[in-house]
Amino acid sequence: MKSYYVYIVLCSDNTYYTGMTNNLERRIDQHKSGYRKDSYTYSRRPIELKWYLQCTNPTEAIKIEKQIKGWSQRKKEALINENWKDLIEFSKNYTEYEHPDNRK
């Protein structure tokens, strides 16, 4: 069965890049070597793999990649650190729930 990976790398400028591949080792090596000069990570090397998820369905992997790409940096860090409480907190809609910085 073929595997697909959703992954997050930390770039040298402390930003995160989220991607999807069917060969995680090869793709990380490409990021590290600067395989494509027009890629996001090229000028932000070195990079470090921080998190990945293995999937068997490419459609599911693409969906998860797109979802994570829309997340804030702190939400990605909660996922990387397996901090489920913060992940839930950072997922709340603050137009419906008061922002945690403003709570008593």
TrEMBL record:
InterPro entries: GIY-YIG_endonuc, GIY-YIG_endonuc_sf, UPF0213_domain. Residues 2-78 form the GIY-YIG domain. It comes from the Bacteria. SMART domains: GIYc (SM00465). Belongs to the UPF0213 family. This is GIY-YIG nuclease family protein. It comes from Flavivirga spongiicola.
